Structures are given as structure tokens and as C-alpha cells.
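for the writeup, i need someone to sanity check this before i put it in the appendix. the sequnce is what the collaborator sent (i think, or maybe the updated version? ugh). structure was predicted straight from it, no edits. if anything looks off just tell me and ill rerun, i have time this weekend
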Amino acid sequence: MARSLILRTALATGAIAALVAGCMALPKEHEAAFAVPPLDSRGTVPVRAGILTLVDARPANERQTLTEWSDVAERATLQMLMDFSDARLFTTLNHVNEPKGPDIVLRGELRAFQWAPKYRWAPYIPGLAFLAALGVPVAESSGHVEIALEVVDPIKAETIASYDKSARATQTYWVYRYQDGRAGSEIVANGAFRQVADQLQAAILDDRERIVAAVKPPAR
């Protein structure tokens, strides 16, 4: 009787420990969707830039799946501002409320933004809690992001360049850390938002000469 009670207690304790570990392993939704490593600095476009808040252009059905996220476009804009600033993509980059003032203005739409967590219940079943300690995943998350962005000449009110970038990402979590199916690649642990920011940075740098030529007259 005593041994049976001890065994049941141990199993229950193990299940609870796995549950707690799993909850700790999967980040909070807002944090996980935007928790990304900083962009590497690959070059600078020598202009003063401003960024307008992205327009929330997500489909209606997608908005309904994230009804508690009322500030997705604002959060995405802020994260992109921090990413591009950390990478020194422009000489300066500030948030602006209207398309005038700096040399160029970034404006665009958030066309897709999804992030969904899913727990794998096997490690939480009494008697199977040890699976989590053996490395069986306790949860996973999937994301999809699409951003359309324009580089605008605020004086001429003309679009210099435009981009539409999207990405999907799936990450697996276990009790010690989270893993990514692309382990060993350059984008280990990068979410969909991080990949889109990286694509936009690369595209803008590719158009660096065209952007500079459009807003800065050649030296005489």
C-alpha cells in the first residue's frame, strides 16, 4: 500500500513537473511571436529615414483568430523599427506620423500575421512524464508573416522601391530550450517575422544606389 502510494505520488509529481516545464518552455504568445535575434549589420543606406505605422491589412478570418491581439500592426512596426535601427540600415530611422520630414519614408501593410502554439500531450500523461526529460518535445509553434513595404520620396510623393516579403516558420520546444527543424542553418531559431525583416533588409540594401540617387542630387 505504502509503495503504491509513493509510486502514484511520484508519477503525479513527474506529470506536474513536465507540465510546468512545458509551460515554461513555450514563451508567452506576444513575446514568442516577436522574440527574434537582432539583424546583422550588412551595410547602411546613407539617408535619414522615417517609418509610418503599418496598415493592418490582414484578412478578416485571420484577425478573428487573434482577437486578443489588438495592436499587432503597431507591434510589428515597432519591432521592424528596432530591427532596422540595430542593423544600422539607415543613417537614422525614426517613427513618423506623416510622410514628410526625413529623406525617405517607409510605409506599408501587414498582410499576414499568424502565430499559434500547440502542446503535445504525451509528456503530460501520468506515467509518461519522463518523456519530457528524455527530450520528447512538449510543444510547437507555427507562424506566418507577410509585409508589403514601400520606400517613398516624401518631397516628390513618389515610390522609389516596393517589396512584398513573406515567410513561414515552425519551432519545436522541449523542457530545456526550443529547437528548430533547420538546426545548423543560418536561421536557427528565427521566427517568420525575423525572416521577413531579414528579407526586407537585404532588398533595401540591394536598392541602395537607386534610393540614394532618388533623394540626393549628385555632387557637383
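Strands lie at 45-51, 55-56, 90-95, 104-119, 139-153, 158-173, 178-180. Helices lie at 2-25, 29-34, 60-65, 72-86, 130-133, 192-206, 208-215.
thx in advance!!
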